[in-house]
Design goal:
This protein is mainly alpha-helical. The chain has a single domain, classed as Winged helix-like DNA-binding domain superfamily/Winged helix DNA-binding domain (Arc Repressor Mutant, subunit A, Orthogonal Bundle). Helix content is 57%, strand content 10%. A three-stranded antiparallel sheet has the order 1-3-2. Strand 2 and strand 3 form a beta hairpin. The radius of gyration is 19 Å and the shape is globular.
Length: 163
């Protein structure tokens, strides 16, 4: 199979990410949640990573500094986040979730669960478990900035290199 084949695993992953993001944004927009899809991504990021500087949020979500500022401003105005001085750098601010964000995050989690249920429909749970293990290992491989001989070489008995 050629590297540019649109059915290669890499292209399928790209398509899957686009589909998930699109369906997630549609579902958040259609839900009673009190935030936009972009704001929900910031809240989810803070849920996963804890208090963070705006630059860190922007880097993880691949959005620019001005966009992050606008999103955080709106979330702060709504009472879902607060800015506090960063204990490691008094010039910087860390963004924290507030207790008011809990009901919003519960609704976002319901949206995520429904989307995951839709995406995994007709998939054997054992296959899904393997898929999850494989993509986590791929993420770890790409997050490792070292090109080292010591990096893990495989996640199981057989390897497929059709990215």
């Amino acid at each position: 199979m050629a590297a540019t084949d649109s059915d290669s695993s890499l292209f399928v992953v790209f398509d899957l990410v686009r589909a998930f993001r699109s369906r997630f944004e549609e579902a958040v927009s259609a839900s009673p949640v009190a935030v936009t899809p972009a704001e929900s991504r910031v809240l989810l990021d803070l849920t996963k990573h804890g208090p963070s500087r705006q630059a860190e949020i922007g880097e993880r979500l691949a959005i620019g500094a001005m966009s992050v500022t606008g999103l955080v401003d709106r979330l702060e105005k709504a009472g879902f986040v607060r800015r506090e001085a960063d204990p490691e750098d008094r010039r910087a601010k860390c963004i924290h979730l507030t207790t008011a964000s809990a009901p919003v995050l519960e609704e976002i989690q319901r949206v995520k669960s429904a989307l995951r249920d839709r995406a995994t429909r007709n998939i054997d749970p054992a296959d899904y478990e393997i898929y999850t293990r494989v993509i986590r290992q791929m993420r770890a491989n790409l997050a490792d900035s070292r090109c080292s001989e010591n990096a893990p070489q495989s996640i199981g008995k057989s390897e497929t290199r059709n990215a």
